[in-house]
Structures are given as structure tokens and as C-alpha cells.
């Protein structure tokens, strides 16, 4: 639809995109985008759902079905498993009456949700805005939308009821014997909270320094709900004192839930932890000092000056900004409270007008993109370095973990709007780290007002007080914190590891737990229909699982279980003492229940032989099955019920469209429509999977989906099960063990990574930012539990997240702002941990400085996430137009507001020189491209990847790296563990760069192509490919032979090294010029024209035309 105040996109490009599209956040569309994307991200969902839960999950009365109500293959139907796959196993016995009352919670079965509450329905966002209804003035870009317009109170209700679910769980005798373990179950949102019984009288501190109201607006729940799905902390009315937000590190329930709600967790295995302060810090200093000294310290603080708090953070440094040596010289502090020589923040020369000074001179120049064609760096593009004082910057968070689209934060929303660039964060919070400081301290020091963890960017007013860098509240330094476990010196709180590391992990004390940390529980759900058996996947999966059984993250508490399904559901009793596993068949898929639940999830160590026996037997058991139906929905319901009491991970393998029972789907793909990209079905056709995912999330269960299908399986619907439960989606298109053998290796490798990678359970993540900034839209796989608390039943090291932000209040007088993510999780060893990342960025006041600090990769990544939302909520062509407009608008703004002299050509700031190229690459990416024959599931899967992958992989998938590999040398090579890894330069993605006498490797992330030119040197062909001549290169070659030649060693080392960098396994296709796969290779040549897409140069001309209007 045409848009007011904005001429429709012109020229060939627009015709390709369809008639004039809308921009991301332009006027009315802005609103619709933000609205819809929030809906899709779960917030919207949560805001509409609560009503459902209040009815559907009533107070927790355990359901005791009357006998006969459920049918299942009772004991007489138990079939022993045998390697022969006896007919007995395959003959489904007739169902008999139930012989025992299964433990189940039927009341939470999702299909009971009233249809009127179809919350998964996609809001008709864009259509609700009539063009012209808004004045043209609104056509200003506003990437940062007013945050959180969604009602949040209702979300709270939702969780209240989830909590209610918990309350009826095993601990029906509330608070009887073991308060420590039972309290989390017994709180009920509505009634008089039992928390009171756990509050120590007198332990609540006096309401000193009431927290800033703006940190927690009254309209939203003061505290985040606990990760265990606990109550939304309706504060007991009886609580006499205490500011709502002042949670104390004491074992009060209130503070406990407070801590939980606020904290966020990231998991890490102990194996990766190299620096642990446990031993040093464990003794001696107990967590007894925080609450009580607070008033005293404040009192003491009065001596040093009440004037401090009114000064901007970093004031203390102003005396010695340019003297980095200062802070290393140990100033004697005992002379009484005095400013610390902490190198943190706000050196005076961090001012907006000097924002670009730390950049290389080239960073300051403008580039005429039409003239300078060689803009692609030959080495991987690095994130821009924030323009902070060197001493601060060296403490800053690694950009691989945490980065911002704008490393110079605009001081006002008006300035941000002017820049026409999106403001947001990209996170990889649980990344595998080789070095991670871990602190075990009974006191975790956090701001008493906003709950920020102490970090390198706070300022110490003196040795007893620190000022929060997010809300500016002055806090006391707890006595324990005065001792530095690293230096073993007392009186150096600013040298503590917490203040020296932007990334750190805390061992969380008991107040961060709402229940005892859950054991690792792994449930595998296998499709065993005829179609599934045909693919042969079960062999690979069971074999890989067998091989890695001992490497599953866990401890002696690890539990494991298996379910298989076709048109019925099969459980496997692994009860101790059995000589072999027993299969229990439940054929009533309308009302699934769990037979003998106590023996279906069993301890891995104690029952390993039975488990191994089952894994060896399983692939043969169904080989004669003719059952074609797939009851995925009921199987997932069964899995959910089985996992509910503990939480854990469900891994479901599916090979076709679910056809019977709840959640069954119909094919919606019309192959003829693929290329047009019109009316394609990107939205779920049912909300069943989403609702079930939310139920799972409430019980700390995540579902990972492995889709191995040659036919349309409606991933748009199925994927919801993972998306909202914080799971992962894997897709193996046309998996077949014989017809598609390279997929077998891919599945093996990726499954091994999946099974053995770190995992965090019952996690929550919260992102905080300096007062004035506000986070409003989240991207990734999770459920937004409260306004900003992400619920992550599982967290894995391969998941990325993105958030959009806006400047809510002007950042006047703030030289810097900070962002902090905190991930609270339970490790596979049963430890409660908190991983914290803090990033500090300067604030600038001019448009030029904003552009100077632009991070083009982060911007591209965030735009890609926004474009997925737009594709789903509006249309693919809308999303494409919005991407193009993002380039046009930012370069137009740069031209009209920054450049003093109008020059011909297409001018871009140096920082954005790759912006048009990256956006063009997005348009040609499978998620967003048109005019090609992409399967719908493949497109949806790519969209899932955009949403869930860390930025580095998203960029690789969008703009692959191209290398010439027939002339690799050791020059500039890396040396890692005695291996020499060549580092060839990265080439532009254009056939112009290809020479017929060369060989080239294209690394597109999840796939690699090695293209061999017709005249490629004989040396390479024989020494690397191991064949005599070009014509003898096999048509479907996917492996390089390991030859005893230097060339072979180098090439293999390089490719192996590339593969090691990522959690997925890229298949390598070695192709000759005549290969049918050549078109896939050429498809990734972003700079070249294709049938349906512009070349880079044409794209630039199009942009220029629009910019110069
Ligand atoms: Zn604070």
C-alpha cells in the first residue's frame, strides 16, 4: 500500500519487490511493526493468554481419573523388546482398562484452551492502519519505539497460574518438613502468600534509599517471577517494611524470588572454568554484613560528601583522565574516604564531539560507493571499538558476546531518529568461553535499587560506597567485598574480580533458588512411522547417542527416557531389575496419559545397560512397520507430562507432517507459488504448538526439534514448539541414509555437538541498561515472562539473541551508558550460576558521531531479525522493501545532515560502507529472496536461523566468505596446537574474482562449496583432490582425501579449522564448472546479478537514485 509522505520506491528494484513497500518504522507502519513483532515474540502472546490459564489451569487438584477413563496397554500388553523385533512388539495389543491411576495433570492439556483465545493468531497489524490516517509528519523514522506498550499485568497473571500449577505438584503438604524445598511450590498467587512464614523477623532492612521509581514503574510487577515458574511475587500485605525492590542477599523468600526474578543465568560447565576464586574466597568472609552495615555506611558516607551523588559518574576520574598510570599505582586509601583512582568511565575527553578520535583516520572519511569498489576487507570484519578511554575499553565486554548496533549512543531519541539507524543489542550470552572468571562469594554485590551486578563501570565514591552505573544510586560496599581474593589485600574493592571483568560468573547462593536445582533430564521422542523408518535416521541417532551417552552433560542425578510414536505412543520402561526394556503402548491419543511414570525417566548411571540395550534395539524394532500416520501432537503432550515434575530437555525427531490427533496439520505449500513469494504461509496454521511450548516453558521444559523431511512438514507451525520453549530447530531436508549420504555425516556431527554441548536448565535472562534507555523488542527463542525477563527453560551455548532499544529520556550529562545481561541458570552439575556481561558505551550528541560508531554487522543482524517479524506480520515484499529503505533512509540522512558539501555519487560514512552490500546479501538470502524456487520449510528454517543464531554465523550465512585455495601458503598462517592454518584473503563475491585456473572455497556457514576452474592447475587437482585430471573429479565429491602432500595438509587444515569454529557441520561440495550445484554456488555471488535480483552495482544505482531525490 502506498504510504503517506513517502513516494513509492521507484525503478526496477521496486518492481521486483512489488509496489511501494513500507519501511520498518515509518510512521504508522512503525507502530504496526512494533506491535506485531512484540506479539510474535511472546510478549503479545503473554498479554493475551493469561485469561486462558486462569481457567484452564485451575487450582492444582491432582487429577485422579476414574478407572476406565483411560485406556492403555496395561501390564498384559507389555512387550519385551527383542533384537529380533518379534511380531509381538509390532502387534499393538488391544487396549485394556487402566490398572493404575496414572499421575498426570490432565487439566493443563493445552487443547482445552478455548478457541476464542486463539492467541497465536497473527495480529492484523498492518491492515489496521489506514494509509493517510496518520499525518505525514509521522514519516520520521523511529527505530526506537516507545517501549513496552503491551500490558504487562496480564502477563503476570499468566505466570501466577503457572505457579499455581506448581503448587499442586508433589509437595502437596505445603511447608511441612522441608521448608527449603517446599516453599517454592506452595506459594499461590492469590491467597495469602506463605512467604511470610519464611521471613525472618527483623531481617528486613529499613527502607534506606528508596529505589528509583523509574526503575520499576508501579504498573509492572516489582519483581520478576522466579525461574521455576514461581509466582509473580505478590508481595505479602503483611510485609511491614522494605522497599519493594531492595532484595537482600538473605535467605528470605522475598529476596530470594527477587534475586531470581532479576537475575539471569548462563550456563557453563566447570570444565571451561579456568579461573575460580572459590578456594580463595570461600572462607573467612561470610555474607553477614550486607544488610546491617548499610545504614552505617551511609552514615559514614555523609562525611565524604553528599555532593558526590549529584555529579555524573566518573567524576572522580576527571582529575586524572589522561594518566593511565595512575590507577595502577596503588594509592593508599587509609587516609579516609576518598575518591578511588579507578580508571572507570567518563574521562573528560569522552565527549560527543570527539567521538571519532580513536578511530583510524580512514574511519572519519566518507566513501563514494559508486567509485570505490574494493571495500570488502580481506580479513574478517571486526566490530568497531567503542571510543572510550583505553583503560575503560580494555575492561569492556567482548563484542562476540555483547555488542550494540551503535557504539556511539545518541543522546536523544530525536538524534537517533535523525540517524535512521536501528538501536539494539546482539547477544551471545552463553557462548563457550575458554576463560571465565568464576566467583564464589556468599555476597553477590548488586545495586539495591535496580539490582545491577557490580561491574567494571561503576564508580567508587570512596572505599565504602559505589555508585551504580545504571541507575546512579549510591550503594554501600559490603564488608566482605573489601577483601580482594586475587591479591589477598584488604581495602581494594575496586580491584575485585567483579570490578575487573566485564564477563564473570557467580556461583549463586541458595537465595537464587526457588527449588533445589533440577537434575539434568533428557527425553528423546522418536518418530517411528513407516516414513521415518524409511529415512534410516534412527540408526544414526541411536548410534550417535550410544557413542556419546557418557558425554551427556550431567552428574549422578542425570535422568533419561524415550518415547516413540506413529499413530500410537510407545513408552519404554527401564525399571531397574528388568532384563530388557519393556515397551508400553498407549493407543488412546485423544487423551494421552503416562503409564507407570516412575520407570520411564530413569537414572542414566544406574540403568545404563538397559538404556544401551534399548538404543541398540530401537532401530530394528520398527523396520517392518507399515504405519504411516504421525501422532506428533499427542506424543509431545505425553512428553510434556512426563517432564513436568522436573523440567529438562525434550529432543523430538520428526520426519513428516503430523497427521492424527491434536496438532495434526495439512499441507499448505503450493509448489507453483514458491517463486512468487506471495501468500506464502509463514504463520503457524494452529496455535497448538505454541500453547504447548508455553506450558513447557512454565514447567522448565524446552523442546528441540529435529525435522528430517523430504516433504513439506509445516515448519512454520511445528517450529513454535521450540521457539517459545527456548529450544533449537534443526532441519535436514530430504534426509535419507542412502540417497543423501552427506546428510548422515552432518546429522552425526551436529547431533554429537548437540548432545555434548553445555546446557543450562531453568534459566532466566534479564537485560538492564542505564536509566534513560529502554528495551522494547526481543528476538530469539524464549518466552518473555515479564516485561523484560526472558524465560529460558534450557539455554545452550549456540543461541543468539537480539533486542531493540530506544532512548526514552535524554541522556544529558551522561558521558557513557552501560548495558548488562544476567543469565541465571542451573548447570548440568546442579549448581545455580549467574553469568553476567556488562558493556559500556559513550554517549554522543552529533549525528556525525552516531555514524562514526555504527556497527554495520550488528545493524544488519538486527534488521534481519526485524525483517523476519515483518515478513510474518505483513509480507515478504514488505520486509524486503523495509530493508532497502533502511539503506536509503540512513544514507539520505547522512547526505543531507552530515555532509557539508554535496558531492556526486553515493556517499556513505566509512562505518557504513558495507551497509548496502550486506542488505543486498540479506535480500538474496533464502529467508527473504524471491523469484526462486525455495521450499517453504527451507525458507522458514532460514528465518529460524536468523532469529536464533549468534551474529557471527548470521553474517556468514548472509554474506559468505570466498577464498582462493589452490595457492595456499603458510604466509600469515595461524599456528594452533602445532597445526599451521593458512589464512587466505577474503575475496569479493563476484564471478569477476574467479579465475578458470584457480580453485575457490566459498564458506556460507552451514554449507561450503569448492569450485574448481576448468584450467585449474594440475598440481592442485592431483595433490589435493587426489585425482589425475579435471575431468576425473567425481560429480558428487564431498570429501577431500587426506594425502601426504603439503598442499593437501594445508587445504584440509584450513577447512577443518573453519568447521571447528561453529556448532554446525557444513557439508563441503566439490564442484566442477559443469556441476548441477554450480547454480547454488553462483546464487551466493552476492555482487552479481541473478535472474531475479540486482547486481551490487545496480543496487547502488537504485539507492543513489532514491537518496538524491
Ligand atoms: Zn542501580
TrEMBL record:
- Identify the GO cellular component terms for this protein: COPII vesicle coat; cytosol; endoplasmic reticulum exit site; endoplasmic reticulum membrane
- Enumerate the spans annotated as Zinc finger Sec23/Sec24-type domain: 444-480
Every copy of the Sec23/Sec24 helical domain together lies at 855-952
Name the UniProt key words of this record, in alphabetical order: Cytoplasm, Cytoplasmic vesicle, Endoplasmic reticulum, ER-Golgi transport, Membrane, Metal-binding, Protein transport, Transport, Zinc
Q: Where is the composition biased (Pro residues)?
A: 218-234
InterPro entries, A to Z:
ADF-H/Gelsolin-like_dom_sf, Beta-sandwich_Sec23_24, Gelsolin-like_dom, Gelsolin-like_dom_sf, Sec23/24_helical_dom, Sec23/24_helical_dom_sf, Sec23/24_trunk_dom, SEC23_SEC24_subfamily
Annotated Sec23/Sec24 trunk domain residues: 517-755
Which molecular-function annotations from GO does this UniProt entry contain? Answer: SNARE binding; zinc ion binding
Q: Where in the cell is it found?
A: Cytoplasm, Cytosol; Cytoplasmic vesicle, COPII-coated vesicle membrane; Endoplasmic reticulum membrane
Gelsolin-like domain ranges (all copies): 981-1054
Source organism, top-level taxon:
Eukaryota
* Compositional bias annotation for Polar residues: 27-49, 66-91, 167-187
Which membrane topology describes this protein? Answer: Peripheral membrane protein
**An example of a Gene Ontology BP annotation on this entry?**
regulation of cholesterol transport
The identity of this protein, by name, is: SEC24 homolog A, COPII coat complex component
Organism, scientific name = Terrapene triunguis (Three-toed box turtle)
Question: What is the organism lineage in this UniProt record?
Answer: Eukaryota, Metazoa, Chordata, Craniata, Vertebrata
Gene field? SEC24A
